[in-house]
Amino acid sequence: MTSDSHALHSDTHDHGHDDHGGAAHGSLKSYLIGFGLSVILTAIPFWLVMTGAIADKAVTALIVLVLAAVQIVVHMIYFLHMNTRSENGWTMMAMIFTVIMVVIALTGSLWVMHHLNINMMPMHDMSQMP
Amino acid sequence: MSVATTITTQDSEPIFHVVDEHDHPEGASTMLGFWIYLMSDCLIFAMLFATYGVLGGNYAAGPSPKDLFDLKLVALNTTMLLLSSITYGFAMLTMEKSKIGQTQLWLAITGLFGLAFLGIELTEFAHMIHEGATPQRSAFLSSFFTLVGTHGLHVTFGLVWLVTLMVQTARFGLTTANRRRLMCLSMFWHFLDVVWIGVFTFVYLLGMLR
Questions:
Q1: What is the pTM for the complete model shown?
Q2: Which residue of A has its CA nearest to B205?
Q3: Number of other CB atoms surrounding residue B73 within 10 Å
């Protein structure tokens, strides 16, 4: 039964271990490593912002963003079991495509709208009011 | 001519039944299909993040993130979701060993953490709305409630799905189909945790720094 269900989750027919199937489950160790890293990567940004340990807000924001990016990768590897082999690499292809779309949409929107805001006629600027 | 065609079809009939159809067991492509669904869901969230990024500073003289957000509550919420992620992982590990009772137990614990997350989030929303910070108040709040609300809605449906699968597992056991469904929900649940990383970083932490 166990090996049966495994064969379902991967195109490779000759495997029986957890670590070969793309969508297969991780081991207890990998889940605990992922959890430990996530706790650390969550605690640091919250601590930085809540205590204001770094005076410069731009630096804090940058660190927070980098830690979030790292944590997303940690989740992808340890919880979602992403790798380049699963489904003959198609999950990775789908993800790379999505990441490209997300980056274009996010940076494009923010960039265009930022410049629109800058080039607006100076009107009553609500955001500057207390 | 027509006779010849008929004969050919009859002779080579097995060839016309493409072998591919029977080569893959039922559900062989489900995981990839579900992954592609998750990626499309990811695009939905990307659009909502972009909207929040554009409108997040437009307070319309209303409350700003600093007036509204309580980071301690958000940290608690993040902990709930993170714990539910690891407990779902344990459920997957026990499912692997075909221990149905333990799997159900871990799934139930996951569900409770999910409920706690939703409860805290709804408390936060209720508190904000009570203070007059409704979605209609400003563009910032409209985009905030849309983004965070959509995530909350996903968690809600994840919980409905979780309960459904627990009933399914209780009735039919850890069948191949149920294992596959539980793995799909596993990906969904972990994916929601990934989206939440984006939410607490962009909305809450960067909002407080603004």
A1: 0.83
A2: A49
A3: 15
